[in-house]
Amino acid sequence: MAQLTQPISPAGARPAMEPKSRRRRLRSGAGKQGSGGPFAYIFLIVATLISLFPLYWTVVAASRTDTEIVTPPTPLLPGSHLIDNLKIVWDQVDMTKALVNSTIVAGFVALSTVMFATLAGFAFAKLQFRGRNALLTIVVATMTIPPQLTVIPLYQIITKVGWVGHIQSVILPSLVAAFGVFFMRQFLSEALPIELIEAARVDGASSLRIIWHVVFPIARPAMAVLGMLVFVQSWNDFFWPFIALNQQNPTVQVALAGLGSGDHTIDHAVVVCGALVATLPLLLVFAVLGRQIVGGITAGAVKN
Q: What are the DSSP calls for 292-303, one per residue?
């Protein structure tokens, strides 16, 4: 009597036949992304509204009078005094000059920090030289020094060179930041394969060409993030610009310090209106660099 035997498939091999219901589920789910349930959408909507509420309240307060803001009940709808408050802002301080100065300072500091930090981060991440780890340790250790300790010697220096009241006194001390160097070093250590650098050198590329055609394209997402962070930090910096500059040549934060005061009272609506004017450029920078961040991450996620 012949014995019926079933062939044994190799380990890990897919069975020859699968149930029709399983094959149907696999075909229907191929290429689809998981969709969130209703609770996920509700949570996202609530989180978005909570995040946008401070900006909305700034618009409401900037379009009201000081009496309407401080008198209960608190208004929740925009008023009709926005143009009047804007006129008061421009009458009390030179807001146009402050916006121009802050744009120059923040833009120059962001560009220089991104450039120098990317070059230094590439050197610390991929180049071999004596004392690399010791130098990186020193750079990181400088982040533990409070900026208040450097105010007196820094002010003495700008006084001797005659830079008090000039924007270069705010730009030059901030051309590069230790955080930016460490940030770019960590990113390039993981994102930049050493094989790309070696292949470029085999093809005869110089160091400058490698940096321009290999390092910068790969580092673009991190450069956009670092540029946005440095721009926002420099735009919102108040302590050192308040010491080095004055109301005749202010940045935005220095101008806001002299806004809304008069007759021993503070007009809160005018102050909030000035803060709204100072916030709009930051939203524009985030909108521009946000696209670069998403585009760079998407480009880096594609595999050949």
A: HHHHHHHHHT--
